[in-house]
Amino acid sequence: MVYSSFRAFGSLICRLSNGVYLKPHHSFQSAFLLSGKISSCSWYSDKGVLPLEVQSVRKIWTFSPLCMGRRACKIAGRKTAQDLKKAKLFSKMGKEIVSAVKKGGPSPISNTALAALIEKVKELDIPKDIVERNIKRASEKGQESFIEKIYEVYGYGGVGIIIEVLTDKVNRSVAAVREVVKDCGGKMADPGSIMFKFRRARVANVKVTDVDRDQLLTIALDAGAEDIIEPSMYEYDTEPDSSESRVYKVVSSAENYPVILSKLEEEGIKFEPDNGSELLPTTPIEVDDEAMELNKELMSKLLELDDVDAVYTDQKY
User: Fold this and answer.
1) Tens of pLDDT along 22-51?
2) Is residue 38 classed as helix, strand or coil in its secondary structure?
3) Number of neighbours of residue 302 by Cβ within 10 angstroms
4) For residue 284, which of 300, 273, 295, 297 has the smallest C-alpha distance?
5) Contact, 204 vs 228, CB < 8 A?
6) d(Cα 34, Cα 57) in Å, to the nearest integer?
7) Among 84, 90, 181, 260, which is least packed, fewest CB within 10 Å?
8) How far apart, in whole angstroms, are the C-alpha atoms of residue 295 and residue 311?
């Protein structure tokens, strides 16, 4: 009787103070003791009861666990995409530096191509050690010059995909691209069969959070911009902070590009320049949700390849 009452009282106290406890996986019964100060354990051992210090219990929390949720996942996804974009830019500039050094030597004084790349690195705010590391890399034994290649791919729903590659091993890069395209259900296209759907232009990217739309339109068009491409609002990306990753694309010819950048800078508008040029679709293609997701997966896998520097599509978002 005493033993049963003792167990019930201890269980009630623990439920009220610490949540709900489950019985441990022991062959004996456990009791919840209010104090760890016990003069002798012999009586408790005879009754199949152990002091609190040697008991093993499992706790069930009575409140819900903390979940990150879909919003946090979207933020993490955008950050990953931004980090990948930055890594690709660093990689491309490094490979261009290696090629320039191979052709004209490591001195920017005598090598005008290298000097131009160094200025470009400064504009893009790329760490100085990227330049130094790749100049040293160019002098290493066995390091070959990088060759630019373009591959064209048919995606789902009639979508065209352009893949820009800068590689020192063409056979390696084409094999890797073909493997990804095949695994993701795409199809390699003949040279020129998709490229005509795109035009090459210089682009300045301006975050929607950094400028008023009407102000940007007025300033850029007055400076000679050819077009302002507004970002699409994805139906699954309607969080207030999603605007952080959305940009206006100020499109310009190569000749007028420096003028537009100077005007934006003069007006105090923050922008991100392109890394040479971008391919823009002349007529974007609209596809269903399933095709859109499959194409996005294909492009994501392609961008994971070390030799791939950029992937463009005429898919409408």
Assistant:
1) 444 444 344 433 444 444 444 444 444 444
2) coil
3) 22
4) 295
5) no
6) 15
7) 84
8) 11
